[in-house]
Amino acid sequence: MSTSPAPARFRDPSTESMGARSFACDFQVHAPPDWRNPASKSTEDFIAEEYLPRLFASGRQVVGVPQHNSIVHGGARLVRDMAQRLRAGGRTEIPVVFPGYELTSSDQLQVILLTNPDEEDLKDLDTRVHHSLRLGLANKRWHESELNLEQLLAEVRQALSQRLVALVVATGHKGMLQDGDAVTRNRDSYRKALGLADGMILAGRLAECHDRAQRLLLGNLPDYRCPRAGYVQSSDARSFEELANASLSYVKLGSFSVEGLRQALLNCATFTSDTPFSEPSILIERLRVRESVFFDEIDVEPSRHLTSLIGGRGTGKSCLLEYVAHVCEYQRSGQYDRPNAQILVLRKEGSTEGTILPSTTIELHVRVGEKRYRFERAAMAATRIFECADERYEGGVPIDGASAAGLINLRLFGQRELANIVRHPSFFSLDPSQREGINLFSFLKSDQLSEVSRYEREAAGYVDDIKKLSIDLASSARALAERPQLVSERERLLQDLEKMKKRAAHPAFQAHRDFLQLAASRDAIFRSLDEIEQAQNTLASTTMKILAKTKEPAPSTSTGAEESLRSLQTAAVAQTEEFMATLTEVKRSWEHATTALRASTEYQLISEASNKHVKEYDAAKREVEAQNINLALLEPLQKRIMDLDSRLATFAELDEKVTECRKRRRLLVQQLRDARRAQGDIYIGLAQQLTASTKERVRMTVVRAGDVTEAISEFQTHLKDKRRFTRADVRELAETLHGRVEEGAPGLEPAELWTELVDHLVASFEVAQDELLGRAQRETPLPDLPWIGAVGNKLKEVVTTQDDEQIGVLICQHVPDAARIELRRHVDADDYIPLSHASVGQKATALFLILLAQTDGLLVIDQPEDDLDNAFITKDILPALQDLKHKQQIVFATHNANMLVNAESEKIVVLDTEPRTNGDPSLPTIRGRIEHQGGIDQVDVRDCVTTILEGGRDAFLARERKYRFAEA
User: Fold this and answer.
1) Distance (Å, rounded) from C-alpha 459 to C-alpha 454?
2) What are the extents of the domains in the chain?
3) DSSP 3-state assignment of 941?
4) Angle of helix 448-480 relative to helix 804-812, nearest 10 degrees?
5) Three-class DSSP labels, 28-95
6) CA–CA separation, 888 vs 638, rounded Å?
7) Could you please report the per-residue DSSP string of 152-190?
8) How far is the C-alpha of 850 from the C-alpha of 354, rounded, in Å?
9) Is 384:375 a contact under the CB 8 Å cutoff?
């Protein structure tokens, strides 16, 4: 009794490691006489030693071998049997062989029949094909059947539907699709034949006939209409040279079947290629959950590309995805509402929250480049990471200090998280201070962001230096503020002194001030010498204390090196005593030299001159007093003038310090602006990359220093009297700046105007300050800034009353670059909406497209279609998904048929529930399980997709009838 053949495995890791290409598929349509090498080897040896190994080496892991004669007596069975024996004997470099027939009809089209490689009763199959072709026992050859193509196909399908893997119409050796006349001539027969076949074979490479085949497949040829059909490719090879990789097309499948090929080739860009499919460098290869609240035991092996989890509500889709976050200890980018947060809570007795039990274990097998890691987490304990030797993921070397989420660059979003994230007011801001929270920076994966951080650190350093310098400037300015008053006082005192000198015109009075300065300078010299002597005494006292500590007995040890320690101590004491002796001698010499200076001729001359002057001065005072002239104020007046001269001399240093500090501050401000401009350059580059990577579905532009309102508002908060410049003034000035940008030259940015305004305000402040402090004025007058208007002049008046510390705040004020992000509403039109005006769903769509533009790590999303418009999903999200899944592994759960079917998901995992049999009253009465998994080509999987996502076949067809789409 015949049975349906089980699908053959189309993936074999062991053979892939030997060089076979994953999913490589090609059909050979020749019998052994074309392969035999008569000069050296028999057919059997040639097949075993040459043909099959070289087929495998060329990339053909699965090969169909049809022929023009019976399977029983022809080369197809011989090749199949030889391949099975070799593989059973441990030969891993041998392809799987599907034997079959190549039947040519009178219409010059062909029928290809392929059977299961494990089929044993091939003689019965030959007999039934004989019967189907009505050849009986006559000597007719296969191509001499009296049936036309349509009749032949109908007979074969009826007789062999349970025995054949594939029933395919071929295009003939010349290639029907390359021959327009053949298409026209065989139009009716071909259309009918395709209605009965599972697909068709094109002669030639897929790429060579891709366009015309697609048009035929979709029914878009103007002179030809046919039902949709899958197609594969035949190399029609006559020599090994024609089996080179260049003649091979790659078809990605879960298991080998014509239905799989048909499904794959409905979207050539996703499932077919002339070159091997790229494989993401970071992969989850297995997720294993044991003893959780909802799953007793479950294993999921995701596709390397796109895996979709489907199932009814409450079947555990969200659980599985959240478990990935749990085992990776994935940290969210910020605090916001997470509907599924309670999934990862430890279930307590009597509670219904949480799906983690004390006995729960979650295991994740991941591959990063050539390395393999196993992540293990038991309940709420910390995750353990092991680096494993091979694909078995057993044992391994513990990896300490590593982050599981960081190793695989995981980005995971639960239900409605995208929508909740974009609701955060600062999400689309480019302010670096927001980077650690919920911010676009969290989703832009670029090495350049480290450069942004570096420039931000540089800018922070410049800001600190500017603010410290401004504090010093403010202090110097406050000190300088005394100078005008002191200068005025000195001038008045000098006038008084001059009047007094005129009344008492005696030489002793004229010289008195000079002698006072002479004595003061002499005393200052000897005070310096006394200070040095005091320092020597302090050093001697400190040295004596240290010497006493050095002489303390060394501790007793059992190291055997006590004698060495005592020798070191003795040497140290000797060295210190030698220094002490030298210091004592220096002190004695210093005291002697100082005493000698006090007894020196110069000292005596100064003393004699001073004493002589005192006598003359006293005599002059008596003489003046005899004339009734009051000189009681003369000496204090002269001393006050000397004090003022001394203080005014320090103002010259302060004046020079202010000048130098201003120069230094201007240099730091320029460096600060350069660092922030460099940040802006990176933002602009990232914006261009983002726009290009989303294929302009999301358009991002950066306006340098675009957020001036926030900057002016923050500066206003530092004003001492906020009534002089109010919030209304802030808004008016911001409007003035933006208006100037709009009216200005093309390319004018707020950054330029802000810099111009700040420089003008600082210059105005410095002019007013110099005038107040009596400093030299600018050589050129301060240029006017007419565009700032009345509100700008009001701000200037306020600024001129501030101090340098507040000016430092103004100079350092960071005006963040503004990000203008727009979403294209229609894929085929230049119709963009700013995200500032967009709905939450449109913002979530933009964020999703940004995520899909990143190509490293892993992307895991639970129901990404939440808050997304179906039109956006079809026109924007799906093309991005199809492009990304060959660069990055993607796993998501969905209830949307578009997200699964039209995204061409490589693997579909169907989850369902079943009654729990262990009877634990603390657990739910049902548990989750995997009902089916595989590609859309598998009937069971396809039926589940139709039922769960479409409401069933009848509901789908009912909608089709109601839509009344025009036939292609």
Assistant:
1) 9
2) 9-273, 282-430+822-963, 505-555+562-628, 706-816
3) helix
4) 160
5) CCCCHHHCCCCCCCCHHHHHHHHHHHHHHHCCCCEEEECCCCCCCCCHHHHHHHHHHHHHHCCCCCCC
6) 88
7) HHHHHHHHHTTTEEEEEEE-TTTTGGG-HHHHHHTHHHH
8) 32
9) yes
Q: Is the CB of residue 379 less than 8 Å from the CB of residue 364?
A: no
pLDDT at 353: 86
Nearest to 514 by CA among 616, 642, 625, 604: 642
Note whether 390 and 372 are within 8 A (CB): yes
Residue 215 carries which DSSP code? H
What's 257's DSSP letter? -
Q: Please tell me the distance from the alpha carbon of residue 245 to that of residue 900, in angstroms, as a whole number.
A: 32
Spatial distance between the Cα atoms of 181 and 174, rounded to a whole number of angstroms: 12
Single-letter amino acid code for the residue at 56: F
Core vs surface per residue 893-908: b (16+ CB within 10 A) or e: bbbbbbbbbbbbbbbb
SS3 853: coil
Look at residues 204, 238, 236 and name the one whose alpha carbon lies nearest to residue 34: 238
- The one-character DSSP state at 816 is P
How far apart CA 99 and CA 589 sit, in angstroms, is: 115
How close are the terminal C-alpha atoms of the chain, in Å? 42
Instruction: Look at residues 437, 436, 608 and name the one whose alpha carbon lies nearest to residue 522.
Output: 608
What pLDDT is stored for residue 224 in this prediction?
44
Question: Residue 281 in contact with residue 359, Cβ under 8 Å?
Answer: no
Which amino acid is it at 894? T
What is the DSSP-derived secondary structure letter of residue 400? -
DSSP 342: G
- Distance, in Å, from the CA atom of 512 to the CA atom of 340, rounded to the nearest integer, reads 94
Q: How far apart are CA 191 and CA 109, in angstroms?
A: 12
- What is the token pair recorded at 243? 């089996």
Are β-strands 397-398 and 384-388 bridged in parallel, bridged antiparallel, or unpaired? antiparallel
Task: List, for the chain, all residue ranges whose pLDDT scores fall below the cut of 70.
Answer: 1-17, 19, 22-23, 28-40, 104-109, 135-145, 170-188, 190-191, 194, 199-239, 244-247, 253-269, 333-337, 425-426, 429-447, 499-506, 509-510, 623-635, 966-968
**CATH code linked to domain 9-273:** 3.20.20
For CA atoms 492, 494, 500, 502, the dihedral sign is negative
pTM of the predicted model, to two decimals? Answer: 0.69
Residue 59's CB is within 10 A of a number of other CB atoms, namely 23
Contact 152/105 with Cβ under 8 angstroms?
yes
Tell the residue number behind the tokens 């032949």, with chain if given: 152
| Helix, strand and coil in the chain, % to nearest 5 | 50, 15, 35
Q: Which residues contact 382 (CB under 8 A, 6 or more apart)?
A: 329
- Quick one: which H or E segment has residue 701? strand 698-703
For residue 833, the SS3 value is strand
Tokens describing residue 232: 């594969």
Distance between CA atoms of residues 814 and 710, nearest Å: 9
User: Which residues have C-beta within 8 Å of that of residue 44, sequence separation ≥ 6?
Assistant: 78, 82
Cα separation, 756 vs 204, in Å, equals 68
Same fold, 9-273 and 282-430+822-963: no
536 CB neighbour count, 10 Å cutoff: 16
> CATH 3.40.50.300: does it fit domain 282-430+822-963?
yes
| Contact between residue 522 and residue 606 where contact means Cβ atoms under 8 Å apart | yes
Residue at token pair 């350093």 = 461
Dmax (CA) of the chain = 169
Q: What is the bridge-based pairing of β-strands 858-862 and 410-413?
A: parallel
Q: In DSSP terms, which residues pair with 166 in a beta bridge? A: 114
Pairing of strands 96-104, 110-115: antiparallel
Query: What tens digit of pLDDT does each residue of 238-255 get?
Result: 667 777 666 677 777 666
